[in-house]
Design a protein that fits this description.
Number of domains of chain B: 2
CATH topology of the largest domain in chain A: MetI-like fold
Largest sheet of chain B: 6 strands, mixed
Largest interface: A-B, 36 and 42 residues
Order of helices and strands of chain B: EEEHEEEEHHHEHEHEEHHEHEEEEEE
Distance between the termini of chain A: 54 Å
CATH topology of the largest domain in chain B: Rossmann fold
Number of helices of chain A: 28
Shape of chain B: globular
Oligomer: heterodimer
Strand order of the largest sheet of chain B: 7-8-9-3-10-11
Shape of chain A: globular
CATH class of the largest domain in chain A: Mainly Alpha
Largest sheet of chain A: none
Strand content of chain A: under 5%
Number of strands of chain B: 18
Radius of gyration of chain A: 26 Å
CATH superfamily of the largest domain in chain A: MetI-like
Order of helices and strands of chain A: HHHHHHHHHHHHHHHHHHHHHHHHHHHH
CATH architecture of the largest domain in chain A: Orthogonal Bundle
CATH class of the largest domain in chain B: Alpha Beta
Strand content of chain B: 25-35%
Number of strands of chain A: 0
Helix content of chain B: 25-40%
């Protein structure tokens, strides 16, 4: 015996801690992750909420207190002052109206489409089940730009829209503001409903419906009393995902709301930040966060109610479909119609607009490739075609570099979170990591960006001022993507289980060897997907960049928004098409690599 | 020298102890089984032996080396314990071929390539899986996967081999085959084997010694015959034996007539029909090669099992008896009473 068992040593606990730690660094990695997330996620949120009550530089006289002192001036100004209607209440009402309308419309249409796709014998189900998801892969403002290209009227300058060119002058309510915003958000959220509800419908055992029919229930009763309650969890999570996303949506209201002063919270926040009203921005960001947190709480509550019953599914008999008879024509028409509205028309319009001089005129002489590859176009700025402009390539390189690195980091961090959460025996660490990594989900991108701005604009301890550098974008992107990255990491690690790795431990493999030989090769697919998903999301993302990017760190998204501001319609549309292509290709690659539907990656 | 020595081993996850002070010696060459219902702490014990869990208190020694002892701070990780563990799910690495799976441990030990190939070939030969060398685990059946999992651990010649529910994932025919295989491996490789199971058949047919556990506590350690013939308490008596033992309350009429201990156990196969006390047949159930007869003795019910076809119908009166030394007496706490019964209707 090396050590006498009967005489406990004073240093025993320390020695034991060290030996277990050196042989299995899971907990050490977990602690490091916890610290990193505390800085990346918790600190910015705390900082912006603190700004709410602290007098900002330049506001000392108005707030009637010293800079840095405590004040309720900002809350008062945004919520109660005569300015409050313009600053806060009207945008809040607009945000809620658009979010709720888009949610209701996309749930209704999406559920019908999901049912058609997964439970009926509609023609082309397989093809439609991928085709109808395409709008999800495109940045939402693709549709906004397509809309302006079609319906722009004389309220703002630049080239007229196609409708105007064809002799029909669309009224403001059709061209800008509430109606088109709701419509476009609906189109972008329908695929999410199809994925989530479709998954639930596919998993629903047809025997449950058969039982009800045998007992004498008609089709309507079956739908209302059996199917609907069973897919309710999917409907709830879809509606919360949509709502939470819609309240933070920036680009669509920015493009379509601005011309008629239709402000939502995110655009109001953007304006507050660009006019350097830090205190007001804090209030708005806090309000957006609050709505996000509230919607998640409602979700948690409803889900607990809905999950009281668990569907005990059989194995067979799942893929039974309902014969539509002559309704097949109608069903296929409806699905085809959505594909046309959601994919063909917007992309077609954008593509056509980039190769025509004058909008909407399809005669031969009007076509040109100048906007892509022309030289000396005779414009004030952007004298060359988009593909020949150095700005585009600089922005593309920035996008690739910043988003790529951030995505790589998110993917790796996500898997590490999954590793620690599934492996550590410290429950508190596992719970903390899971929750803090999920936190950015409650904070819409634009509020998060505002939080980053407030924290990292100046030097903090050892961290230099990051504003203006690519680092702030990368860190914000990483944090913004952690909910999804950590979720897929946890899912992958749970699926792997601990046993393959434990078998390697028993065989004598140390931690590093286990990572290299066992965990990484098995999780190759999950890792690639875990990097590609944040990459696609980052490429599509506008709200983070619009706040945090400076001309030196221009990315494709901000570049295209600036072209919109300058009314270079063709060039802006061309850049958006490039982004859409990258996003679509990336998502397609994820699906091929993981051989799973997107539905498994989001929410459900 | 014992192969494994557990001294007062305790494991708690904050709540009630999953393992509460178990002391157990596994001798060199033993084929030891940890048997108990699910949640009794047997798998936790196995994982502590392997080093995949740390003990909260107590001491574990493998060979002459202390591997886990919180009091002195010693902890040797599973990498350095030189033992093998075959998981219930087999845990084969899906991205490696059978041969690569088996090589893995040898590679880590930096064994020359030629020798490694020879050893891998030998162990694959012994487990008759040589023809699957280049296949991936997903291309193998459950039984073949288990052989690969065994080969992977045997290749490094562990001092102790740990098995988690070795037969429970196999179908009936394969179970018999693997049972013979495991006994052969035990002899051929001369390893000490410790396995856990909740299945008494698995325990009785494989093990040379069985440790019965319940609620994290050791109930009895002994040979399979020992445990069956002299259960240390009423839990062990109930847990071992199929059909299960008849337990009679000593306060009832039947109990008093059988000797009056607080609890009395009668194995169904120890009951004889033909003479003795009167009873009524309630039902006769064939179980394929043997028969179970349910008897009513006053308010009590007794199960009797027999290898010969009973010529009985429900409702028919019969006489029954049991040899006094076949009675199991337990005290009020369920512990076995060693006293010989004084009186019995034999």
């Amino acid at each position: 015996m090396q050590t006498p068992y009967s005489s406990p040593l004073r240093m025993a606990p320390l020695r034991r801690a060290w030996t277990t730690l050196s042989q299995d660094p899971t907990n050490a990695i977990g602690l490091c992750l916890a610290i990193v997330f505390a800085c990346l996620i918790l600190a910015p949120v705390v900082s912006i909420l603190a700004n709410l009550f602290v007098v900002q530089v330049g506001d000392a006289r108005r707030a009637g207190a010293e800079v840095g002192g405590l004040t309720f001036y900002y809350l008062d100004r945004v919520l109660l002052s005569p300015m409050s209607r313009l600053l806060f209440w009207q945008p809040l009402a607009n945000t809620l109206v658009t979010a709720v309308c888009a949610m209701a419309a996309s749930l209704t249409i999406g559920s019908v489409l999901a049912w058609l796709l997964f439970r009926t014998d509609m023609w082309g189900r397989r093809w439609f089940s991928t085709a109808l998801i395409v709008p999800f892969m495109l940045p939402s403002w693709t549709f906004a730009l397509a809309w302006t290209t079609l319906f722009k009227n004389r309220t703002i300058g630049g080239q007229p829209g196609w409708a105007e060119a064809a002799g029909f002058s669309p009224p403001d309510w059709l061209s800008y503001g509430r109606v088109p915003i709701i419509l476009i958000l609906t189109i972008t959220y329908i695929p999410m409903v199809i994925l989530l509800v479709g998954n639930a419908l596919r998993r629903l055992d047809a025997q449950l419906e058969d039982c009800a029919r045998i007992l004498g229930a008609g089709a309507g009763t079956v739908a209302w009393q059996v199917v609907l309650p069973l897919i309710r969890p999917a409907l709830i999570s879809a509606s919360v995902l949509i709502f939470a996303d819609a309240i933070g949506e920036f680009a669509v209201p920015y493009v379509l709301g601005l011309p008629v002063q239709y402000d939502v919270l995110s655009t109001s926040l953007y304006r507050a930040i660009s006019s350097r009203q830090t205190g007001a921005a804090s209030v708005l960001a806090g309000a957006i966060m609050l709505i996000g947190v509230m919607s998640i709480c409602i979700d948690l509550y409803l889900m607990r109610e809905a999950r009281r019953f668990v569907t005990i599914g059989g194995k067979g008999a799942m893929d039974r479909v309902r014969a539509l008879g002559r309704g097949r024509y109608l069903a296929t028409g409806v699905a085809g119609g959505f594909f046309a509205v959601g994919v063909v028309v917007p992309l077609g319009v954008l593509a056509l607009s980039t190769i025509t001089h004058m909008p909407g005129r399809l005669d031969w002489g009007n076509f040109t490739l100048d906007y892509w590859i022309g030289r000396d176009l005779g414009t004030i700025a952007l004298r060359d075609g988009v593909l020949l402009s150095a700005d585009l390539w600089a922005a593309a390189w920035n996008s690739l570099r910043i988003v790529g690195l951030a995505a790589l980091a998110s993917g790796v961090l996500g898997l590490l979170v999954g590793y620690v959460v599934t492996r550590t025996e410290w429950r508190a660490l596992s719970v903390f990591l899971r929750q803090i990594a999920f936190m950015p989900y409650l904070v819409p991108g634009i509020a998060f960006a505002a939080a980053y701005l407030s924290l990292f604009a100046v030097q903090r301890g050892p961290i230099p001022a990051l504003y203006g550098t690519p680092w702030i974008l990368m860190l914000a992107l990483i944090a913004d993507q952690m909910p999804f990255a950590s979720r897929s990491g946890i899912a992958a690690m749970t699926q792997l289980g601990r046993e393959p790795e434990e078998a390697a431990r028993i065989a004598g493999a140390g931690w590093w060897r286990r990572m290299v030989s066992i965990v990484a090769p098995i999780q190759k697919g999950a890792l690639v997907a875990g990097v590609l998903m944040p990459f696609v999301a980052g490429i599509k993302s506008v709200s983070l960049f619009v706040i945090l990017a400076v001309p030196a760190t221009d990315v494709l998204a901000t570049y295209s928004l600036r072209l919109v501001d300058y009314n270079y319609t063709q060039a802006a549309n061309a850049v958006v098409l490039i982004i859409a292509l990258i996003a679509w290709g990336g998502t397609w690659a994820v699906q091929r690599l993981t051989r799973t539907g997107l539905g498994d990656g989001i929410g459900g | 020298m014992p192969a494994i020595e557990l001294t007062d081993i305790t494991k708690s996850y904050g709540g009630p102890a999953a393992v509460g002070g178990v002391t157990l010696r596994v001798e060199d060459g033993d084929f030891m089984c940890l048997l108990g219902p699910s949640g009794c702490g047997k798998t936790t014990m196995l994982r502590m032996l392997a080093g995949l869990e740390t003990a909260t208190a107590g001491r574990i020694a493998i060979g002459n080396r202390v591997v886990d002892c919180p009091a002195t701070g010693v902890f040797v990780g599973p990498e350095k314990r030189k033992l093998g563990l075959v998981f219930q799910s087999y845990a084969l690495w899906p991205h490696m071929t059978v041969a690569r799976n088996i090589e893995f441990g040898l590679r880590l030990r930096k064994i020359p390539a030629a020798q490694m190939r020879a050893e891998v070939a030998e162990v694959m030969e012994k487990l008759s899986i040589a023809k699957y060398a280049d296949r991936y685990p997903s291309q193998l059946s459950g039984g073949q996967q288990q052989r690969v999992a065994l080969a992977r651990m045997l290749a490094v010649r562990p001092d102790v081999l740990l098995l988690d529910e070795p037969l429970s994932n196999l179908d009936a025919a394969l179970r018999l085959e693997m049972r013979a295989e495991l006994r052969r491996i035990h002899e051929e490789f001369r390893t000490t084997i410790v396995f856990v199971t909740h299945d008494q058949w698995e325990a009785m047919t494989l093990a040379t010694r069985i440790a019965v556990m319940k609620d994290g506590l050791l109930q009895q350690v002994g040979t399979p015959d020992d445990i069956y013939a002299r259960p240390a308490n009423s839990f062990v008596a109930r847990f071992i034996g199929n059909p299960p033992i008849n337990m009679i309350d000593g306060a009832g009429d039947l109990g008093r007539s059988l000797g009056g201990a607080p609890l009395i156990g009668l194995r169904p196969e120890d009951i004889r029909l033909g003479h003795g006390q009167p009873a009524t047949v309630r039902s006769v159930m064939p179980t394929g090669g043997s028969w179970m007869v349910e008897l009513a003795v006053g308010v009590e019910r007794l199960l009797h099992s027999t290898q010969t076809r009973p010529d009985l119908r429900a409702g028919q009166p019969v006489l029954w008896s049991i040899a006094p030394d076949h009675l199991h007496h337990f005290d009020i706490n369920g512990s076995r009473l060693q006293r010989t019964p004084q009186l019995c209707h034999a």
